[in-house]
Amino acid sequence: MPEVYVHAVEGRTLDQKRDLVRDITAAVVAHFGSPPEAVMVQIVESPKHHKAKGGVLFSDREAPRT
């Protein structure tokens, strides 16, 4: 049974997570030949104050501009 773990900072919507696990499952099926029901995907979310990049907590970073 293939297992895929995705580590990410919190903040994605439920629909984004659904789309991600669907696409990851499809990729594992296509490349490993596993049946979809055998593929396990787990999203491991971290609070923004528990994760940093470049020495700066994600909670301290400026919000992205649109």
Structure description:
With 66 residues, the chain is an alpha+beta fold. It has a single domain (3-60), classed as Macrophage Migration Inhibitory Factor. It has one helix at 14-32; strands at 3-9, 40-46, 52-53, 56-57. The strands form two sheets. It has a two-stranded parallel ribbon. A two-stranded antiparallel ribbon has the order 3-4.
CATH fold name, please? Macrophage Migration Inhibitory Factor
Largest sheet: 2 strands, parallel
Please tell me the CATH architecture by its name: 2-Layer Sandwich
**Compute the gyration radius: what is it?**
15 Å
Helix/strand-derived category reads: alpha+beta
Low-confidence stretches: none
User: How many DSSP H or I helices?
Assistant: 1
Number of domains: 1
Topology:
Elements: E1 3-9, H1 14-32, E2 40-46, E3 52-53, E4 56-57
Parallel strand pairs: 1-2
Antiparallel strand pairs: 3-4
Question: Could you write a compact summary of the structure shown?
Answer:
The protein has 66 residues and is of the alpha+beta class.
Task: Give the tags.
single chain, about 70 residues, alpha+beta, Macrophage Migration Inhibitory Factor, two-stranded parallel ribbon, two-stranded antiparallel ribbon, 1 helix, 4 strands, about 25% strand
